[in-house]
Specification:
This protein has 16 helices and 4 strands. The protein has 416 residues and is mostly helical.
Length: 416
């Protein structure tokens, strides 16, 4: 499909999202959700307006929808929920312009207050020696997400450095019941509940809810020259964890992969029970693409060329498997074709040409074709960013091999 045809298809998907809904995911409780509500859909229209394929009145309508109800500035507000989600979208719209400056100033002050409150609670938990909930530190709900916000909105400010200092502290091992655990080990299940299946908790490896997110924000900050004491040691500590749980290919396997999480039994045994990659292995949120991109960024930040090559090889092998029939069955950003395309494009731009004979960029046309087939068959679960049509349209919008978001919205995925 030609670039013009792809752009036309993106226009068609975006056209379905022109008018904010007053019921469903964009209303009331989810109106300030970056994942499913108005702020995420606003990112689509901001990107399109910057490219001259949309208009700012549509952007304004979606930002107005995000602020139709009182802004959630509660203690659990995060990059993907409440004031920080709205502030991220408003900043993306306002950048390099005079738009929304008063609203942004007010929202940013709120996010700064929230960040300090979240940091105080996190340091208090660390002082007690309690295990964290992954919502303390993860990308979607925790301090990693707030770090991504500050990296995008105010990289020279002290709030980002305070988050980085916390993430450094998070990587320090903790001792419980005479045993040593990674500092990010939680005693909850991946669904944030206590569960007999996760007695002893788990260590999450993914980008959305696991330690790949902190690794990515540490690496992206270091790449910009923003470092704090212990920064490199923290990156290397996380990378060592990924090395310990890397699953290398056996006979007939396509490539290196990582599990979604490690149970306490697996930690004690030093071996996972999962024998082969699952469908979710080829996803941004939990799988090899997000994990490999985080490690590639870490390698760039630290000058670790062997790790960079290994991460790129793992991603290329994952993409080779993903394009096989039936391996990916979703269109969206979180665990579908759109997320694969955007992650692969960012990784390809940084990749060593010809990694393992399979340049990552060589897979982009096939990934795009697969996304187009899903779009034509009926894409997205809703209008949202992570699982819905907004994310799909954003991936289509940047489908040219050299295309990148002009607004920098994909910082919220920590792939750039």
């Amino acid at each position: 499909m030609s670039a013009d045809a792809r752009a036309d298809l993106a226009d068609a998907v975006a056209a379905r999202l022109t008018v904010p809904t007053t019921v469903g995911p964009s209303a009331a409780k989810l109106s300030q959700s970056l994942a499913r509500g108005a702020p995420g859909t606003a990112l689509l229209h901001i990107e399109r307006a910057r490219a001259g394929r949309g208009d700012w009145s549509t952007v304004h309508a979606w930002l107005a929808a995000a602020t139709r109800t009182p802004i959630n500035a509660g203690p659990d507000a995060s990059l993907y929920v409440g004031a920080p989600a709205v502030a991220f979208a408003v900043h993306t719209a306002a950048a390099r312009s005079e738009r929304y400056q008063r609203a942004l100033t007010t929202l940013h002050a709120t996010v700064r207050h929230l960040t300090r409150d979240r940091l105080d609670r996190a340091h208090g938990r660390l002082a007690r020696g309690d295990p964290p909930a992954f919502t303390e530190f993860d990308l979607l709900y925790g301090l990693t997400g707030l770090g991504a916000y500050h990296l995008q909105v105010d990289p020279d400010g002290d709030d980002l450095r305070q988050v980085l200092r916390y993430l450094v502290r998070l990587t320090k091992p903790i001792r419980r019941h005479g045993d040593q655990f990674p500092g990010w080990w939680t005693d909850l299940s991946p669904t944030r509940q206590r569960s007999a299946d996760f007695a002893g908790g788990h260590g999450n490896l993914g980008m959305a809810h696991g330690i790949a997110g902190p690794l990515a924000v540490l690496a992206l900050a270091a790449r910009r020259g923003i470092v704090v004491d212990g920064h490199r040691d923290a990156i290397e500590q996380i990378c060592s964890w990924f090395d310990a749980w890397r699953q290398d290919p056996g006979p007939g396997d396509t490539g290196t992969w990582w599990p979604q999480w490690i149970t306490d039994g697996e930690r004690r045994a030093g071996q996972i029970r999962q024998l082969v990659p699952t469908r979710r292995t080829a996803s941004w949120c939990y799988g090899t693409p997000g994990i490999a991109r985080a490690q590639q960024l870490a390698a760039i930040a630290t000058g670790d060329q062997p790790r960079k090559l290994a991460a790129e090889h793992a991603l290329a092998s994952c993409l080779a498997e993903a394009v096989q029939p039936g391996r990916v069955v979703d269109a969206g950003l979180c665990h579908g074709w759109a997320g694969l395309i955007l992650t692969a494009r960012r990784a390809a731009a940084d990749a060593t040409t010809g990694t393992a004979g399979h340049p990552i960029s060589a897979f982009l046309p096939r990934l795009t074709d697969a996304l187009i087939r899903h779009v034509r068959a009926g894409s997205g679960e809703d209008e949202g960013l992570l699982d819905g049509d907004a994310g799909v349209a954003l991936a289509l919008h940047t489908a040219d091999l050299n295309g990148f978001p002009s607004s920098g919205w994909d910082t919220c995925l920590l792939i750039a």
